[in-house]
Amino acid sequence: MLSLEQINDADHIVISLPSDADDALIASANALYSFILTQHKKVSFYSECEDSKKNLSFLPWMDKLKNSYPSSADMDIKLESSKDVFSFFKSNEIKLNSKMATSLYASLIARTKGFLNNVNGITFALAYELVEAGADVDSCNRYILNYNSLASLRLKAILLKKMVLSDSGETALINLEDSDLKCSGSTLKDAKIVVKDALSLPTVNRVIVKYKNKEIFNEGDLV
């Protein structure tokens, strides 16, 4: 658990992200980075992930995210869940500035897929609080929900054309090949772009993407 007392006692704090950190976790880490700066502490931002996350470039402090671990830190905050960061802000009644609010709002819409998954009244109340605190909603919506690269769009067209339905139309199957990646200029991670569109079909409730006979995505109920 994040501890305000430990942050107050530390001189140099590192916020560490795992190699598989998703957009929600990275965005919430930005909010925490902003808060620690307001406490006049030295803070470093470290990630094992080498993905540049261009869709998150609008967030504050993304240029501070490094792959080299600082040697002088006396506190390491290893973040594993964006919910832990939200709980930290809430339990300590921390007053949000616009940078914190924007980062937390970005994390919220990334985690809920644009308020489509796992939402309730508390979720919308939190969103309202973040907007009132100065969250840049337009940028969050544009870069979290609607950001795509040209390469990913090219791959999307290829994979949708190759998609076949099975299990009476309930499962969408897509086989990804090296030639698909090469001609589109995309990466394996870009293949996930087809999931939402495939799940929008009336009978489909699961999408399976295979690469070299192994499942790289097996997802359902995202929309």
Question: Can you give keywords for this protein?
Answer:
223 residues; alpha/beta; Diaminopimelate Epimerase, Chain A, domain 1; 2 domains; four-stranded parallel beta sheet; four-stranded mixed beta sheet; 9 helices
Would you write up a description of this structure?
With 223 residues, the chain is of the alpha/beta class. The protein has 2 domains: 142 residues, Alpha-Beta Complex (inorganic pyrophosphatase (n-terminal core)), CATH 3.90.1640; 70 residues, Diaminopimelate Epimerase, Chain A, domain 1. The protein contains 9 helices and 8 strands. The strands form 2 sheets. It has a 4-stranded parallel sheet, covered by helices on one side. α2 runs parallel beside α3 and α7 runs antiparallel to α8. The longest helix is centred in the first third of the chain and has 16 residues. It is globular. 29% of the residues are buried. The mean pLDDT is 93.
